[in-house]
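=== RUN LOG ===
request id: a7f3
mode: sequence -> structure
chains: 1
length: 278
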Amino acid sequence: MAGPVQNTALRATLIGAYRFYARAQIWRKGPRVLINSVPKAGTHLLTSMLGVTPQLQDSRLWIENRFVNALAPKHERTRRFALHRPSLDRYLATIRNGQFAVGHFDYYPEILDALNDADIRTVFVIRHPLDIIVSKFHYIKALRRHAMHDYFVGLPSDDDRLDLLIRGSEQPESFGLADELRAFKGWLDAPGVFTVRFEDLVGSRGGGDDIVRRRTQATLLEFLGLPPDAFAKQESRNSSATFRKGWINAWSDLLTPERLSRLSEDDKDAIREYGYDI
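=== RESULT ===
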């Protein structure tokens, strides 16, 4: 299987061409959907599922706070945030009926208001935060075009890399585990938002339960207003890449007891606030 496109310019060209095609689909019917999550919490799993339903198309739109931040005119990464509503509205307007987009939005009530005003149905994906840490670790280490890649691989050891992901840093500016979880936490209880656990979607191929997966899919389809057989094509395919990536509790292979001891009590509390144990 081919890996991710490493060349930033080539990737931008390919996505730009597809986005032009997707925006032209003005004839489509169906819900407009935003899949939002903490980065590396499982959006790929859900987009793979939704991408095989006849009623939904991947718009290939990906947005996060820095693209709509009035305090980041050059889309620089910063913890300071003030919503530039016209920018967000322009992005949301390009999601056609019957399409979904991906977002990594910290929770702000004004972002939720914009989504509701645009009649966007929002799905918030969560995953065990320690699995998020491990997924980020491998992702940043492998993806040369990632903004933190050079700094990350330049650290002396994997222990230092995990420390960066758990504790965060000022330069380069990045959230630690507890701060990031709390930045997104408001989505858990936001009205009209459907929260789904990665562990409930992954099925037996990822260490989960297929009965739970099908039940969760049915509830999700009801929320999106899609027919209950929308995933039938996926079920018959059985070779879908949807279930070949991502495992429950994969963190235990990398996060040894010694490394887990680096978690602060605040980190542990934030993990429990999402309904997970350590």
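=== NOTES ===
Residues 16-273 form a domain with the Rossmann fold fold (CATH 3.40.50.300).
Residues 66 and 72 are 6 Å apart (CA to CA).
=== END ===
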